[in-house]
Amino acid sequence: MTLPYLGAYALVAGLGPDETRATYAALTDLAIAGLEVPLAAADAGDDWWRAHVAEEWDLVVTAIPTVMGRLAQDARYGLASDDEDGRQAALADVATAAALARRLADAAGRTRVTALQVHSAPRAPRATRDALARSLDDVAALDLAGALVTIEHCDATRPGWAPEKGFLEVDDELAVLAGRDARLTVNWGRSAIEGRSAAAPVEHVRAAASAGLLGGVMLSGATDAATAWGDPWLDGHIAPRGEDPALAASVASLLGPDEVRATLAAADGRAAYVGVKVTTHPDVREPAGRVAVARAALAQLAS
């Protein structure tokens, strides 16, 4: 398996600037292809990039923090929006990501943003297949400097509980992707939240792989219990459970070694990239402790 990516922006959540820099510096000791970074990093200056991102790392850019921030201000926002202003606002953010991909590629002399994760916002019923299809065609016309566009599936609405995201169904996303160059990324935790089970992520990965549309797999945990990470079924990126002492606090995570193996088996080697995105127990603030959690989670991919 090729080297995985690490969602380091989640790993450093809640840390101050000095602790954040020290944590990023320590990540250079890990066997990773690079980082998953939020779209907001496009606004960071060159000093931030030099201090946090090693030149040899490739990058996966995710729009989800921007998407959720925009939706908090305007429920019409999103690539799948039935409102044209909302759709165009989301396309403008994707154009920002494309500009970042070009800038980094020009500076490095190679593709650095290997994938761009977009989302089928807004919340149903405002999201439609037709709007998402038009948006993907618009995105395909951009110069992405070699980046693969993937729709990162987020939990769709289910009767009986409030969704965390509430975007389109995975079947709708796959239907739109059919015949296009874009692909689907499955975030383990978000699929588990949708299905209220550890089986749903495997089903989603298998469906995308079988359709020849699997782009990526992001292994981010979820739990059906109240923990230090928050209430049950929150999209809090709880670390996987496991025997490594660094994972002792996340014993309630539904994601563990068996689930990692089952998910990767369902991918059947067809994912363009695999990644891990974790947060730590809120009491773990020192960089060494946070990096230990990341190292332990990454090790489960090789077990």
Jot down its keywords.
alpha/beta, 40% helix, 8 strands
Task: Give a quick rundown of the structure.
The protein is of the alpha/beta class.
Give a structural overview.
The protein is α/β, with parallel strands linked by helices and 303 residues long. The chain has eleven helices and eight strands. An eight-stranded parallel barrel has the order 1-2-3-4-5-6-7-8, surrounded by seven helices. Helix 10 (257-267) links the parallel strand 7 and strand 8. Helix 5 (84-108) packs parallel to helix 6 (129-140), helix 6 packs across helix 7 (170-177) and helix 9 packs parallel to helix 10. The radius of gyration is 18 Å and the shape is globular. The N and C termini lie close together (11 Å). The model has no long low-confidence stretch (mean pLDDT 96).
Ranges where pLDDT stays below 50 over 5 or more residues in a row are none
Give the strand line-up of the largest sheet: 1-2-3-4-5-6-7-8
Q: What percent of residues are in strands?
A: 5-15%
Overall pLDDT confidence: 96
Order of helices and strands: EHHEHEHHEHEHEHHEHEH
For the largest beta-sheet, the strand count, sense and barrel status come to: 8 strands, parallel, barrel
